Queue: 4 jobs
Job 1
Amino acid sequence: MEYGFPNMPFKATFKEFSKKQASEYKDWFISLIPERIFFLQRAVRRSPSHSDWSADLSPESLLGLGEWFVSQVRTRERTVVEMQELRQKIPDFIEISSQELSGETLNKAIDVGIYLSEVVKVNNQNIEWVAFVNNKSSVDYGQPVLSGFGKRVLNPLLIAVNMAYGVTRGTLDGERLTQLYKVWSDLSRGVAPITPASLLLQAKKSKKAT
């Protein structure tokens, strides 16, 4: 059975949303969360290796979910039109993959992103769903996101879809959801994530101190 996701209640794209539409879409999106988590758990349990997985919103549950999601990522050939549209947006010296995530993979990614967001929200304080309408040029505009991370917001759709692309490139594995949970949990407490840039800055400070 194909893994589906309900159609949006508006015909407009996120970029075309008014603030009122963005708020209404956010409310609709939140109303779907219990149902989406139910469908996600049912799908995961259909896999023999994860038949006992429970969507209990614990951080520990993310490892099993991540392993399952990695096994579910599928791609399809991009159409000629899709390749032409991408080439118009991307410089010629950058190679474009002929592969795109399948529709079913995208639908699963949405629910995986929703579940990750709920785990972050339930296990940390002062996290809430909001409609992002601060900056119309942002990729997050019009979409439901989690706030409570300082100036950052957590967009569940983009997070999980980017993870799926990483899986196709062989750069990400099933532990990614657990890693993301730690990063966003730390941000909710004001702890900056460790990045190559932050490590370099720390090294420079240590060198000056000596």
Note: The beta strands are 75-77, 99-101, 128-131, 144-149, 152-154.
Job 2
Amino acid sequence: MARLAGDIDGALHESTWSHFPCAIPLRPPTDTNGMGRTPGPACAAHTLRPANPNPTAQAENPDLAAPAAHTDLPAWDRWFELTRRGSTLGTEFRGGLVTFFTMAYTVVLNPLIIGTAADINSNYIGGGDKPVVAIGLVAGVTALVAGLLTITMGAIGRFPLAIAAALGLNSFLAYTIAPLMT
């Protein structure tokens, strides 16, 4: 049988407002409803707060309030909100460096898969009959697209996410589809 909300030993209990256990100490029992338990929430965590009728208004909780405009921060920090997110320029730089080296294999592997597949006329990507030229073209396009999309995601989206060509369908494209195409 579940403990009633009036227990004051601070042990896990079931609140009348929730089915989840709560380890927050309970308030002293007061029997105001004649049922032997406290009415309403059993602990501070289960206290219902009315919804803010104006969601654009500043939150009552200072932790949730929008930060004041920091005009003393550099422009790049105001744009990317590094300080607000608890990051620094050095941390973001190291993260970008690690991400680059983690994803750089696509600039090598993608051309080796796609650039060496000939079409039905024995031509490689770019219309040549030499795979060296095709590998160079695919490597250039892979690096260019990955760089532009990553910069766009960072500068416009303001989110540190690297975007590059995925290698999941490259073999299927190179060895099943490309030989059937002209």
Note: Confidence is low (pLDDT under 50) at residues 1-20.
Job 3
Amino acid sequence: MDAVFLSASVPQFRPNNDPRWAKNIDPLSYREVIAALAEETAKRNIALVYGGHPSITRFLASLNTRLRTGTIFLYQSAWFRKHFPVDNRLVTDHITVTDSVNDDMNQSLSLMRKTMLSNHNFGLGLFMGGMGGLAEELELFHTLHPKALLWPLKKLGGQTATLFEHYIVDDSISQAEKEAVSPGGQIARVLESFIKPPPVRHPIKGVSEKVRSLDGGCCQSHAQNMTHTKTGVCVTCGRPI
């Protein structure tokens, strides 16, 4: 997995939105999850990609002054250029601004989302909060990355709670939510399920102290480590000498 996609915004009461989205919202819970996600992805050098919603940018800006991670990627549409948060540069230097389309907000956002979700190899999409655009991001994410895991934080409300109302989470997520209380612990467990440990190389029996020169018949990629063995194989990778 090269990247984690964060689809998130802190819901607010708006006339055209479902009133359930902004019910019982706790911004501190959002901050806790985002901080844990940023820290755990940075530890593993996994890109954290999001669409630059101001409510999330504020959280990440205050956090990144401490983390100084280079693994956050922020996408925004030029349609919002006049309203770009000053905190953007405090979050990351990896900022992509997509073109405005026909001076239309929805078309411009669609282009930004397509660009953002096409530029990375996602293994996980984490969804929280949301006020309308989350549905489009979910559909596009699943279309472009059908094998990626979906993790809806339904308890935090927003459009995620209604959109994933009957969604059954993957076993690895259910297990992580049972075993760990804190968001950081849960995220760490889920990320670890994607990362395979490096293979353990066992020494090959029958190694002789006699070193044999290479004349093109051995494993060239490990030439400097080549040792003649009674088994006639490279001690580094096991290829025939």
Note: The helical segments are 27-43, 54-67, 88-91, 105-118, 133-144, 159-163, 171-179, 183-192.
Job 4
Amino acid sequence: MNFNDLGLNKTILRTLEEISLTVPTPIQIQAIPPALEGKDVVGLAQTGTGKTAAFLLPLLQRQIRDSHKGKFRPVRVLILSPTRELAAQIFEKAKDYGKSLNLRSQCAVGGVPINRQLKALGQGTDVLIATPGRLLDLAKRNAVKFDRIETVVLDEADHMLDIGFLPDIKRIFAKLPQQRQTLLFSATMPPSIRGLADTYLHEPVQISVARDSSVADNINQSVKHVAARQKSNELVSLIQDNPDKRIVVFARTKHGSDKIVKRLQALQIDASAIHGNKSQGQRVRALKAFAAGECKVLIATDIAARGIDIKDVGLVVNYELPSVPEVYVHRIGRTARAGTSGMAVAFCAPDELKHLRAIEKLIKMQIPSEGEVPETPPDPESNPRKKRVRKRGKQPNTSTQKTGPKKRRPKKSQKNTTGAPTSGDQGHSQNNQSNSDRPKSTRPFRKRKSKQGSKGN
């Protein structure tokens, strides 16, 4: 089967031939016909199988029928993306597929001046690709009108409907018309996320060309069991063993990504990082340098796991295993794209074993391992460095306490009313006058007591 059998018009078919796109993928074969009919679609396929063309081609053709001429062009197609990188790539594909069509596309993401986007939207836009946060910012400035939108696409639907994006998605869908077409495309669709997605679709056509959370067969996976402090050395050795491969390394944190870059650059290894603290310009320059071969190693956090679409990525390294198993599928999907083969290596510290077991359960296979596999993760209670909690109050030192009989203090000398010193007072009687020889009137206590007695009489 080819694109001629899917109902696409001649203009789009001619464009596909010019860009050497002639054979549709399974997800495109199943998704394009119902999307052309205006039906809601849920598409589930492995990453790198052509999901972008599966929803862009039918939507562009549907907009040709009612194309607007002139300056006023309301947004009729809204495509929501979880990351800036993925939105930029969808925008480039939309321009390639629609270059012979009388349609205007625009990309609106954060990290760039909003005034440029306001000016572009003011000139008219048919297809808008945006991230949720920037879309809401534009809506507050009345730059986007939702009442004319006919079709909404949620790309990477499981990530879009995650906890962090759900509030924005609800606010956006509350502004959309009830009569619309909604399409969801993703590499994974867990049951909990599917339940949320079903609330936004009306009798959708379910399409699945692979089992849930499956991994491409042409990816050679392996895991190395190493201590956390040895991961840096293992990464250097892995890079040196694969001098001809383009490598993407996924780290968990922004600080960790920068730390890895400094370590590699100190060893004269070309590396750069992309994460949330980088500006949009820095991220674009890093991706371009990596795609051109000027940078051999790209360190990325999960913001780029769904946005890197670069050919000939030969190796993907999970420097730290993700806590969400589905993220692992997206990470290793950066290699072995468009029918090529690739490698995926994961570093697993003892405290990451639970993440590894969850990943293996999700992909329904045991990943081949290297190194000794610890039987159980270390118990935090048995940590020798754990601080001892000292109880309040001074505790007796029983090891040095004397067990002999206590010495009795000598009794105080008793007062002698006769004036003769006792045996205990002989050392002091020569120099000091006894208390009994002092006049009672000089003693305040006796004087106070005598006054009370006189009042009583």
Note: Residues 36 and 150 are 13 Å apart (CA to CA).
